[in-house]
Every structure is written in structure tokens, then in C-alpha cells.
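Loading example: each entry is read as two labelled lines plus one structure line.
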Amino acid sequence: MTEPSSEDPQGELLATPLYGLHVALGARMVPFAGYAMPVQYPAGILAEHKWTREAAGLFDVSHMGQAVVEAPDWATAAAALETLVPADVAGLAPGRQRYTQLLNEAGGIVDDLMIARPADPASGRLMLVLNASRKHVDVATIAARLPAGVTIAPQPDRALLALQGPKAGAVLEAMAPDLAGTIFMDVRTVSLDGWIDATVSRSGYTGEDGFEISVAADVAEALARRLLDHPDVHPIGLGARDSLRLEAGLCLYGHEIDETTSPVEAGLVWSIQKRRRDEGGFPGIDRFRREMAEGPARVRVGILPEGRAPAREGTEIRARDGRPVGVVTSGGFAPTLNAPVAMGYVEPALAAPGTELDLVVRGKPLPARVAALPFVLTRFKRRSL
Amino acid sequence: MTLYSRDHEWIRIDGNVATIGISQYAQAQLGDVVFVDLPETGKAIEKGKEAAVVESVKAASEVYAPISGTVFEVNAALTDNPGLVNEDPEGRGWFVKLHVPQGTDTSHLLSEADYKAYLDTL
């Protein structure tokens, strides 16, 4: 049997502040973006996935980049970031965050990231969360474009934990009453249990309600153990993190998006607010306007294989007449659906849900259909009427 | 008697019938199995070539035939319940049965004791 694939370790792997805890919990550690990370705990990926959908899962995402942009005032900070990303940063209310993309001059995606504005309206600070594999490129790219008086500083001394699932709200609100009443994409600086200073955003990468919790590295293990003491909270590895985000139809950098793909192709136009579409002023604006007017050359779609065989990344997508029309960017098994799912790029003419395609798995064309994303309905905590 | 390959397949030969599956160690390495791609009956498979593909949540892995033979039965139960490979890899989670010539050479395969010793080196 071939060994299940994992990345080849390249030299020394970095450890997150929770490395010792992962090992103590019996995690299988694998190399990921230069870090030794838990791919699964003894419960296994399927059980971890289901637990997150039904209760609350704790993820160590400390490998991700955290960085702070500091300017004399809010307007200066927002204007500086708007030269790099297509989101309406200036329109971000205090205590809110937005998902956006760092773009290159050709309109390709250098990285996707979260930008958070502190609750203090006088603050000239922006907090960024970056992909682990891209954080050094991102910081260098941003630093090169910032005007005098605006700085970016990585925060390597901070850990990031994600608590995700329908019970995450009750668990964390009990530790920080200030979080009660927050909704999807709110950001708060709170004291957890009255002693752990944390910056908490109500967001995540699973499609569930939940939080990303930034704390100093030296209290990360104490916080993780405190959360895991709760009977509704189990540790969840990268394996389930990937199957959860795939069901939620979310992009993974290096798979759905990279320096060649654009926000229009990737179906991320929702993250570019109207003022920015009208005014432009972000890298790749020519490509953005052309693709909005004429349509992109390819578009990201969800795909449901009809059989049981998963179609992995790199699988060729064919039209029913046998013509190659695209490639799978992520594919696997969706535990919630108990069926294989995939995402990939196809010609826009073949992007309508229900369109019949073939996926070439081990040389055999297997029937599949384009499906609406997300595969599993998201349950973010939105403002109720 | 069950013999093992260094690629973590097991094989049990009874007369000219060889049953093939993956070891307890292999299923633990794979994690949750969600699909098994089994060969057509009647297919001739050479020693060391692909006999099946097992898909876990994470990845696809090829299963190699420890000896040459012709497929005459596949484990249809795996189609509806691929998790049998995790539950009982060396029993109900078998993959294929091959017709093999009498007196097939198995000297390249490991006894259970030798396989366990080999696992300790990994």
C-alpha cells in the first residue's frame, strides 16, 4: 500500500505554543506550512468533523500569521490598506472585521486575509490574520506599499485558537459575558475568565458559529486546557478543518486561489463592496473591470460526484462531450453529506448548478454535476430581526 | 496462515485462492476509509501492481497485490460499508480474492512475527 501522502518535511519544523498539548492528547503530527501540526486526534477525522457540526471543536491555528498595521489615525490606516486590497476598509465600523484579498498588479490573489478594526474608534490600528504559508510574503508586500508613518508588525508572540460549532457561543460567552450579543464578524477585546486577555472575532473557517481567539503565546495552553475541560469541546485537527471548510465552500489558498486567480474567477465579488467597485484604486483594477464586464475565463464551482469515489485535487473536469473544461482544486469526502464533494474551475458556460460533467478519476470519467455552494448551509450568527 | 508485505498488505492462501487486504497498521495510518475502488472480476493482476485503491478522508492509497493472480471475487460489502476496513481490516474488511497457481512463491512475504518486528523498525 502507498503511504497516505503528507508533505515532505523540509528541514526543521516550527512548533506552535500548543505542540506539547497536541502530543499529550495523542495527535498525529504532520508537517504543514513549515509547522508540526495535528492532522487528527485519536477520535479521527470523521468523528472530529461531526463533533464540530454538533457541539464545539477547538482548533490550533497558531501557525497562521497575525500582524498589526499601525497608523496615526483610522483614516490613514484604512487608506493605506485600500491601496492593497479591494475591500471597503474605510467603511469598517469599530469592532468589525472583513474578509478580503491581497492583490498583485495583475489582479491575482497574493493571499486572502481578515482585517479587523478595534472597538476604539480613535485607534489607528488594523489587525490582520494571514495564511501560514503566505504570511512572510504578505508582510513584505504590505510593508513595501505603506506610506511613511504607517507600519506593519508581525505578532509572532501570539497564538490563535478557533472554537467552532453550535455550542461554541455558550461555551465562550460563559467565560466572557461581553461576547454575548456579538454577531458574525464582530471583534472584541475581552478578558476570558477574568484573567486571559484576548482579542476575539466571531468568525471561523467551518461554516458554523464560532470564534477565533488571539492570545499571548504563554497563556495559549492554559486557555486550550480550560476550553477542553468543557464536555462540549473536543480537539479538532487539520484533517477535519479541511473537510469542514470544503463543505462550507470556502477557498483554501494554494488550492482554489493563488497568484493567477482573481476574485471574480473565485466567486469572491461579494467581498468587494460597492464603493470600491465604483472607485477602484486597488491592484488589478483593470482585470477586475474587464472580468466584471465581459465575464471571467473560468469560474469556481461546487461539484457533486454521482458515485462514491472522491475526486481529489488535480482531477481533470470534462464536459459530457469529452472536452477538458477545467480542474478540481479541492476534493474529498463530505461527512455531513456522507458523499464525495469537490470544488474546481470550469468555463463559465458550464457553471450553472445542475450542469452535467465528468471527473476523470484514475483514467475513468465519472459522472458529476455542478452544485451550488456551500454544500452544507452555513450557520453563522447573523443579526436577528 | 496470514503473510504480510512490507507495503502493509496481508494475504491468506488456501489452495489456489488468495485473499488480500490491508493490515491493522495500514488502516490506522489511513484513518477513516470512505471508499474502496475494487477491480473487475476476471482481471489478471501482477505481483506488485495495483489491486485496489483505498480512499480515506485525507487521501487515496494504492493497494498492491503481494502475488500474481486473477480476480474472481471482490468484497461487495465494502461498497456500502467502506468503514469495515477500519473495523476489521484483517477479517471482514478484505478486498479481493485471487486465483493463484499452486505452489506460488511467497518467500518474499513476512510471517506475522516478522511483520510485527518490521513494524517496530518504522
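Chain B touches chain A through 26 residues (CB under 8 Å).
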